[in-house]
User: Fold these one by one.
Assistant:
Number 1:
Amino acid sequence: MKKLVTFLSIFLVIGAGAVFFIIWDQQSNTPTIPATQIEETTENQEQDSDENSEEAITEEEVENGENMTNQFVDIISEAVQKTIRFFSKETHIVAIGDSLTQGVGDETKQGGYVGILDESINESEQHVTFENYGKRGNRSDQLLKRLDEAEITSSLSEADIILITIGANDIMQVFKENITNLQLDDFMNERTKYEERLNQIVAKLHDVNDHALIYFIGFYNPFNSYFQDIEELSLIVDEWNRTTEMVSNNHDNITFIPTVDLFEGTSEDLLAEDNFHPNYNGYQRIAKRVLDYVTD
């Protein structure tokens, strides 16, 4: 059942998935109360009229319910077929980066968005192999050095798709180094260096593998819970994401995947207990967004 929930969360719009489960539950497990049970409380009505009314309402409700259910089944089938067609040949995906790639915060301990992708895509049969090199706390300068490690280089050279999360810890480093006198210029100056390192990362990836599709996954704003008095935080996050997107657009085979909007304007709890990393629900949203971009 858990696999099914994960699968539907990734392939369906959340609202459509919720409606589907409601309809399915009503039809399969908790049928609508028969009209006769309601009519028993109504006095002085003809019994044969009650039975005819019950039969007419039930048939109409069943027909409407079946039509709606069939529509949502078609949506599921289309999403499944789209993914299977895309991964019709053996595909190797390498994920590398910081704690968002490692899956920190996922209370189910299933590997965050990478684990969700693995479980969903390979639910019925093995379509894709995954290797995860996420490392908590990684900044762009540290990721740049890790690309020289033999194991990582070898894995990247065989990848068809490369997924990267990076940047949030670079911002956090600015906080740590300037905590007593934090200025907006500190972030802007470091952002320029971050851009240079991203270009170096891209250059190394292209040297190792010139055919893989590379996806930089943007980060949301995890800092508000800790620095609520800094109004410029949203501006800082937006600027750094825009930098990653710009670098992506300047190179072949690279796509930027935004995630800021996934964590805004919702009452759903999407963060882990540390109020910094996503929880399982948050990673589900990221996984669906990644899959949408990869299979588009």
Number 2:
Amino acid sequence: MTQQENVYILGHKNPDTDSICSAIAYADIRNRTARTDTFVPRRAGQINEETEYVLRRFGFSQPGYMSNVGTQVKDMDIYKTPHLEKTMSLKKAWDMMKANNITTLPVVNAEDQLEGVITVNDISHVFMDTEDSLLLSNARTQYHWIAETIRGTIRVGDENRFFDRGRVLVGTANPELLSLFLEEGDMVILGDREGDQMEALRQNVSCIVVGLNMEISDRVLALAKEKGVVVISSVLDTFTIARLINQSIPVGYVMIRDHLITFSTEDFTDDIHDTMKKSHYHAFPVLDTQGRCLGTISRRNLIDPRKKRIILVDHNEKDQAADNADRADILEIIDHHKLGSLETMTPITFRNQPVGCTCTIMYQIYGEQRLEIPPGIAGLMCSAIISDTLMFRSPTCTLQDKMAAGALALIAGIEIPQLAKEMFRAGSNLNSKTPDQIFFQDYKKFTAEGDLVFGVGQISAMDAEDLSMIREKLAPILKTESEKQQVPKVYFMLTNILEESTELLYYGPDSEKLIAAAFKIQPENGSFRLPGIVSRKKQLIPAVMKAAQWLKSTDLSE
């Protein structure tokens, strides 16, 4: 069975009702028709009051926020490392690394929270460079791990106790000489001579290790039990025991705890590239949003990262798309605007129709797929058509839009005039918003041939007083937002739906000249009055671009 993966459906950066509702509708269509993958609606920016009202009215939550569709760590193949705890032995860590052919292991607790990192180099240093006979006790090594490391069995004593004082020695002298170098608390590796073993017990050692599974007398075992001495019997010889025993120390004694380089699943690959490149580590722990360690990634993961797969609705301009859209795998575009600047590496499905709203196209697709439209989604789509066509007053509105809205209203059980009134009232109620929030509520950036770059925002309302209040808030910040966004010319449309007219605010070099040329009028009190102009897409933008071309040709001829 093919593993399902997410495909994200997004509208533009400053989402309006159409971009949100068409993403929700198309996700429903694809999830009901596709055999693989899961289609998830997302928003590339903050929704406005009108859209918030529509979602609440028909019982939908806001789609999740996704302003950047670049590759993230969670899109990579994260290597699922074995579960290594700091109490485990270095030998256990070494065996895990060999078995999995890796050089770095995260050290975690029982809740998978990262506690440190251990590498092959760290272990090799202990194996090769340590001459300290107090290493095991300084590391507080558990007898259980000592026995496992030297392939031994604990004959007497508690395996959960710690060897926490004394040296590790090999007892090769006769019993009389043993007493000269043994100290209380030491661990001693011995042969099968009972006299050596009894002398070690008399010196109050902590542990006796006997190799080659040699016989240990009942007398020795009984005295060891009485004194609380641990006795371990190993199948290995004395030399091998002495060579391996340091490998029993706990990982926590050697692991790196401070200044760890870790990455979050939410990190973008562009942001971590330099960090990985500069580090001498080969692999890096990956933490989820709860801080749990999921495994590791390495520099190899950067060679060919798995791109996010996306479908774009209600736009096809690069400047309007979520950040890094050009680095994602765009599967489809469904739109009703002019052709924009987005490019794809391979051919895709691109559906672009001259209608007033993307949700009109969604209505057609439901019919083509012979899918019943849920009443809630019908309400969303009808709202989007009302919004984009200004309740059929916009010149962008077509017969197809009107027919779709009528059919959707019947499915949703709504009255279009009443819904429109409530929507537009919610959209123009901006008392709680700051001027810059209002400015970007429905703002788009446009680029034309040559060096023409400009931005246009729009607020539509059915009440002239609401628009007047909005004008007072916006007029002083046009200059600030132009400089902040590095857009030389900015315009803002204050559109009166009932009067079917727009007051156009402007700022920037030649911004006044451009509108004057486009509409053959002059400004009044710092703005242009544009009767009959309500559509940014079909009336304002084409006129501005045509005027820019005319002005440019006039300058050249002079």
Number 3:
Amino acid sequence: MSWVCALLPFAWAETGAAEVSVQDVSAVLSLKVPGNAAREYPLEFRKLQEGVYVGVPAERIPVMVGRQTVATETGLRVTVTLAAEENVYFNYGERVKTGFRHDDCLFYMPGFWYRRNLRSPEEAPSFYSSDSWIVREDRLSAPLTAAFDEKNGRSVSVVRIDSFESDALAARQEGEVILSGKTSIGYTGFLNEDGETSLAYGFPYREAPKSYVRKLTLAPAVEAYQLLRKGESVSLVWKLSERDAADFSECVRRTWEYSFDMFRPKPVDTAYTPEYVKKVLSGYFSGSYVSGTLNYYASPDMRVSACDSPEKAEVGFVGRTLLNAFNALEYAEQQNLPDMATQANSVFDSYLKNGFSQAGFFNEVVMCRSGVVEPVHSIRRQSEGAYAVLYYLDYEKRQGRRHPEWEKRVRAMLDMFLKLQGADGSFPRKFRDDFSVVDSTGGSTPSATLPLVMGYKYFKDKRYLKGAERTVDYLDREIISKADFFSSTLDANCEDKEASLYAATAVYYLALVSEGGKAARYVSLARDAAYFALSWYYVWDVPFAPGQMLGDIGLKTRGWGNVSVENNHIDVFVFDFADVLRWLAKSCGESRFADFAEVISTSMRQLLPREGFLCGVGKAGYYPEVVQHTHWDYGKGGKGYYNDIFAPGWTVASLWELFSPGRAERFLRK
């Protein structure tokens, strides 16, 4: 019994220990000898004392396994201790039965999996490929999996607890791989076991039935093995919890609150003030400006290493050239930078002259040397362009300058928006100049809400307000109430962060011009959408391996948002969202919103490229876009690096709005 007693010092001395049944828990310890296939050793847990068990395999192995369970107010804390009697390479895993029928369940792995991922294509992780998935923890904004039983309104979750200080490289990325050192990254997920849902979790990481290596590219499963030397031990800690939830939205809300309270993300300590960030970012305005038939700020398809200026001009999405022009103009006049102001004005002048289609929509994407124009419009880019121009017009009017031709153009566009709007209040994702619909998906609808509300305020035209209200009726009925946020980004067709973020922002804009019962309704809707948006943002710091640049320069991932199921990287897409969170904090009395807004605000300053600290980017002020924080890439770089091309126009625009708080409120409540 001496070897068993040796495990007990590793048990957690936490009060409230209680007898916990382990009949629904199964565990397997896999051991690998280099050059040989791993062997699995199922474990039977035998009770030693109250809440303390020993894992016994069918045959003698050189590893002692102890398991302690402690009941706490927030769930069942599970501590597993492995102690090696000789050098071993190990992978440990557990499965816990939930008692839920798999067909009754929706699943939540924050920032990666929502419901059954049925908005995603079969080339990405989804139920189309399998109804059982386990993934490495750094894919997730919290290392957590929850299963929600729709039929009975119950949710069970498992979350990993660790200091998450290290990661290790592996020579291979599929099959059984031996790690080059110590990692903190395990795995989590859900399984269909004979029609019943089980939660699966373990350490080090595994991915099955497929790994996800780049956009729409599923790869073979992977199982990592870490060395545990003779005489060493490792303790692994998870917390299992169960909660009621009326629907999937409440499941996400309560689980996010639980995750936030578990990890308590703090603002990142940075010396960069918002004023300093803007000063550095303004270098992008000067460096990326291109003159020609269209004057614009270059963004799409730019090489990270060179930060050259390709010929592509893009109004919205990853270009955001008109919003950058407004930001540059406002900043230049504040700081007395006449050359920058001249350039910004020239962007608006050239778009007024040469930036519209025959019908009067923006030419969204233009190859300026060849003159080739993308013929298909998107409601998102059109809306982002109109949004920027309305801010510009309002600013100019306050300076005593009027632009009647621009006003005429924007009114005509908003009138066309009303014509384009569907009977259900939605907008098609993509369409042509003749109003024929290319993609009727309504996920991008909230992007149109913003300029409609702004147009109502600027032009005093209630038709635009009515159109905006109809968009939110659609959002309420088809997206928010169904907890089905999807396809707002234009380079993917799946569950994504921007759909919920845009929805929350759209409702916020309407709330700012509404009173009474309408305003109260909008607060409630914005709150529901905000929880889904928040669920994409990291509440923990992903570890990196030595040699992975992002880790070497000290990146903390808390406060950064994953992008979508298809595009599994983090970025700084926030725009108005911090203002939405602060507003909700006041409206709902929920301090977590304001607290996390501060985490976002501080964390997103970290990769500011400045002289002497370029963060892997070719020029100061060109803020990075594709920040690859997990084993995934667009085709270049991988974890700890960027893709080889990026679009810094939208990242600069997003951060500029983050550090221009209250902008929408000043516009809409003046």
Number 4:
Amino acid sequence: MEDLPDWLTPLPDAETMRRVDRWAIDEQGVDSLELMERAGGAVAAAVERLAPDGSVAVYCGKGNNGGDGLVVARLLREAGRDVAVVCASPPGELEGDAGENLKRLPGDGPVRLDGSPWRGKGAGRGKRSSPLDDRVAIVDALLGTGFRGEPHGEIAAAIEELAKAAAPVISVDVPSGVDASTGVVAGPAVRAAATVTFHAAKAGLWIRPGKEYAGAVEVADIGIPRGAPMASAIGLIEPTVLALLPRRSGSSTKFASGHVLVVGGSLGLTGAPAMASRAAMRAGAGYVTALVPAGLQQVLAGSGMPELMTRGLPESEGALSNVGVEQVLEATARGGALALGPGLGRTEQAAVFARRLARAAKLPMVLDADGLNAHAGRLAELTHRPAATVLTPHAGELGRLLELDSDEVEAERLRHVREASRRSGAIVVLKGDDTLVAAPDGHVAVSRGGSPALATAGTGDVLTGVIAALLAQRLDPFLAAAAGVLLHVRAGRLAALAVGSAEAVIAGDVIEALARARGQEGAGG
């Protein structure tokens, strides 16, 4: 697998981080205790920022993550803070660097989950007050990046105890119960206010459902030297991707800027192709043609977009008829890109139309909405397309494509988006706050999200138009999809600022913000 492009920041998995640690320790001579010291110091500093005064509880497991927690406890105690150290398993089971940091811990030894001591007089007897009582912050150092599956036993009990905490929780490296490599949450998991992760953010901190448990993510430098073996197939989309978008020059023409053909529309669903068309214009397409059922052509022509060209196609039951495929193919002769599906409808004729056109069209294509539904259970048919394909499903649509329940998709978003890309040979954009852009070679670009304004009807059509415009400008499809996702998120944020709140945004506001979003090359993601 090739390296990630420069506009993606690698999000390593657990195995990669194990290799990085071993490389730093075994090949670069970095002291493992010093790495643990710096990791604990970064978390302790985060606690001091979040809750500068008051009592703290640190919950430790028996691995290196627990060792990091013991460093946090020691540093906070040395700073004069009252700290309860809670071990989910006997402290005697701590080995290596974690065991060494237990020896260095000043003050009282660790207690059990119920607050009773592990050692000394009364060990295991006589319940005390809960270690969670009257704390201003809780540190979760139970499970580290190597955890997979579902927590059991005392660890699960500790995680369930933390769910009762009134104080904010700061997780060490990854919230306990979250798979650091995938974001999967198979059982109880800590819902953190913040996660301090080391050297690089892990994929599971940015991919749902894990993203919902991580809170604010802080990446701490713990002294791993430059040149660490950080090969990763997953990366965060960075603003630098926008520098790769084409710009119009004095010699540009509308043909050089790309032609987008938006194919869809049905009775009651004329807004979708209209929004996709307008978004394509705002995203830089030189000209846009909407191909819709003949009976709806005048509706599109009179929709307030004099720049939009329209063409009526044969219709059946208020939707596109299968016999119109040849006319669309004729319209593609001058090149560009297709956006197939907005407002298409779910009649059998429209579904057959979509499948025939997708197979035959020689242009790059974005397939969305009912264009996707027409391919439910038929992903493999798309592998025969003669040009690049980008699919833009939400979880429900991806579930139909893969013949799964949408809840199954949401539980393992990374696995299922990769599977859909592999089966279809297409770039697959799984929409959500953590929108994932998967390529057939296994690479995945992840959006930082953070634009709740996009949770409104029609914004999916906007994204379709944006990506189609970038494809029409001859961008690589993986790049076009990722850049389109970033533009879409930025436009959502700008729209919310313009109208005053995310809740008031409508899809048209997002379209109007696209120009400003594209002009912010140097701004954050």
